[in-house]
Specification:
Radius of gyration: 30 Å
Number of helices: 12
Largest sheet: 5 strands, antiparallel
Strand content: 5-15%
Helix content: 55-70%
Distance between the termini: 60 Å
Shape: elongated
């Protein structure tokens, strides 16, 4: 943020174009058209544009044409020219410095930019690239599949428990409270105004592992008391009474470890710490309050508890 205040922008988009002759007048006219479109149509989002035609405008005071443009090109220092075009590969670049914007605003900007490049007068083969584009693609790749990853995780846990217990209810009742936590977690993030990041996108898998452990400990105690011929209600009470203290201690110590992340100066890491602590708290609530309620309601069917 300090660097952005000083130099104006740290986010950039690069338009890489290809042509048979990147130094031809026709190609330069195309580049000039792209620069004009970006400056006029996207002026609120663009802070600066650098291209070969911008340098020509500066050297010629915007007075270059098909008759004299080559003489101005020759006056551009080779080191500077090499940054904007490569004669050997037939490629050139247009560097666009962006104003400060959020991830959502950047996505909208890229869409608008690609629509502008679809102009019928632009025939160059153009690729929108640059560090900002790569970072956006990486972020989307890491966060867009978060729900799929969570569902796969729940499915794998359910399948593993089904194989071990050979009882549909035992496997189902262990993952139902965890499914609720996933929904609650998304709601909490929305209320806190947190965006999904590569770190927070992994919280679903983390909570599945921690929360399932809590529910399994209670469930196994519950079935032990059921096998000892205790009543349904007594089995729930004894299981919760016996397991609540070790589960609470385990949850609190885990939250204590992750809470250290909250004090990080790195915002993404700090938000991850906050959400992890919140989700472990939700897992604790779900295991000690929601799970007994589910056992009380669903356990009334005797067949469901058959081994």
């Amino acid at each position: 943020r300090e660097l952005r205040d000083i130099i104006g922008s740290t986010d950039r988009v690069v338009l890489m174009y290809e042509a048979d002759d990147v130094s031809s007048f026709d190609t330069l006219q195309q580049v000039d058209l792209i620069v004009d479109l970006d400056e006029t149509k996207l002026q609120d989002d663009v802070s600066q544009i650098t291209s070969i035609t911008v340098l020509l405008d500066q050297l010629s005071q915007q007075n270059w044409d098909s008759a004299n443009y080559e003489s101005y090109l020759e006056n551009i220092p080779s080191d500077q020219l090499r940054l904007l075009q490569d004669l050997e590969t037939g490629r050139g670049v247009i560097n666009i410095a962006l104003a400060e914007m959020t991830d959502e605003e950047f996505s909208v900007f890229v869409d608008e930019l690609e629509m502008l490049l679809d102009d019928e007068n632009i025939t160059l083969d153009i690729t929108v690239t640059g560090q900002s584009i790569v970072e956006q693609e990486m972020l989307e790749a890491m966060t867009s599949d978060r729900m799929s990853m969570t569902l796969i995780g729940i499915g794998l846990v359910f399948f593993a428990l089904l194989v071990i217990y050979r009882n549909f209810f035992k496997a189902l009742i262990a993952v139902l409270p965890i499914i609720l936590i996933v929904g609650w977690s998304g709601g909490v993030m929305y209320l806190l105004g947190f965006d999904y990041t590569p770190l927070t996108s992994t919280i679903g898998a983390l909570i599945i592992g921690i929360g399932t452990e809590f529910t399994i400990l209670i469930l196994m105690r519950f079935y032990e008391f059921k096998n000892m011929k205790y009543s349904h209600q007594e089995s729930i009470e004894k299981a919760i009474g016996l397991m609540s203290k070790p589960i609470i201690v385990s949850a609190v110590t885990t939250m204590g470890g992750f809470s250290a992340l909250i004090f990080s100066d790195f915002e993404i890491l700090s938000n991850f710490g906050i959400m992890t602590v919140i989700n472990i708290s939700l897992a604790l609530i779900s295991s000690l309050i929601v799970l007994p309620a589910l056992l009380g309601v669903m356990g009334q069917q005797a067949k469901v508890f058959s081994s």
